[in-house]
Design goal:
Layout lengths: L10 H4 L3 H13 L15 H12 L6 E7 L4 E6 L10 H13 L2 H4 L2 E7 L3 E14 L2 E7 L4
Length: 148
């Protein structure tokens, strides 16, 4: 838009994005993972990570694509679906979800299903993201193609 109309006032297009843009700049400042096309991970004993993933697998939703167990700033474990045991999870998508969680305070305190576009998975349709923090340091995120 700016290429075609250099004098365009973009404020009306970004007026509701102050908090997500602020959180994105905060996350980039605190972690270089955004620049490295990575996402922050906590190192755990592989057996513990596997057990944690198996426990969460028992409760994952219908039409589950992938999920992860997180702290407020790091990924603890990735959970994949049975149909695709090695989904391609892009760091930019994980960082997008983290940014969304941190820019929407209710996601840190309430169990929430929200619909969002995750470009690395699909630009054609919206996905359903479940987020639940059990305390301020431990949460779970499921990404599903169904809202059930």
């Amino acid at each position: 838009m700016l290429t075609d109309r250099p004098n365009l006032d973009v404020w009306s297009n970004i007026s509701n994005l102050e908090r997500p843009l602020h959180m994105m700049s905060e996350m980039v400042w605190k972690s270089p993972s955004c620049f490295l096309d990575a996402y922050p991970v906590i190192t755990l004993n592989p057996l513990f990570r596997t057990d944690l993933g198996q426990l969460v697998n028992e409760f994952k939703p219908k039409d589950f694509y992938f999920g992860f167990i997180i702290t407020s700033t790091n990924v603890i474990a990735l959970i994949s679906s049975a149909e695709d045991p090695n989904p391609e999870i892009k760091a930019s998508d994980v960082n997008l979800i983290f940014n969304y969680i941190h820019s929407t305070p209710s996601l840190m305190s309430e169990e929430t299903w929200t619909t969002m576009c995750i470009p690395g998975i699909s630009e054609e349709y919206l996905l359903h993201v479940y987020c639940k923090f059990h305390n301020e340091h431990l949460g779970i995120v499921f990404v599903s193609t169904s809202d059930e």
